[in-house]
Amino acid sequence: MKTVQAAETAVSIWITREEVPRADALLALIRRSLAERGLTPWPAAEVECFAAGEDALVIARPARDMRPAFYFADLEALLSGALAIRDGESALYALDSGYLLAVSETAAAPALYEYGEAALVSADWERHAVEQGMCLAEKDAAEVLRRHFSR
Hints:
With 151 residues, the chain is α+β, with helices and mostly antiparallel strands. It contains 5 helices and 9 strands. It has helices spanning 23-36, 75-84, 110-115, 123-131, 141-149, and strands spanning 2-6, 11-16, 45-52, 55-62, 66-72, 90-95, 98-103, 117-122, 135-137. It has a 5-stranded antiparallel β-sheet, sandwiched between helices. The protein has a 4-stranded antiparallel β-sheet with strand order 1-2-4-3, with helices on one face. It is 32% helix and 36% strand.
C-alpha cells in the first residue's frame, strides 16, 4: 500500500508491506503523483528512502542544478584522473585537503571513479568557490592539466 503526499516542492510516499520500486520506477511514480495533482512533474529528483521493518518512507525534492565532481587527495591522483577522462567542460578547485574537479556529465569517465572520490557540486557552490579564490581553472580544467602535464 502506498500513501502519497505531493506538493510543488516535495513528494513523500509511505510504502507499507511492499518493496520500494527501483530508481527509474520510483521517479515515474513521483512524476505521476505530481501530474495527478495538477503539478508540473520534475525532470529529475533528489530521493531519500528510509526503511524500517515492512515500511519505507520516500522523500523526494526537485533536483538542484548539480554536476558531477571528483575529489582528489593529491596532485598525482588528480593528474591520473584528468589524463584519462573524455573532453568536456570542467573546472578545478583547490580545497584545504586536496583538489575538486567538476566535470560535465559526458566527461565523467570510469577513470575518474578509479582515482577520485565521486561527489556533486551545485552551481551556487561553484560561484562561491570562484568568489573565495578557490578556483584554479574555471573552464576546460582537464584540458589545461593535460596540456601542462602530459608527456
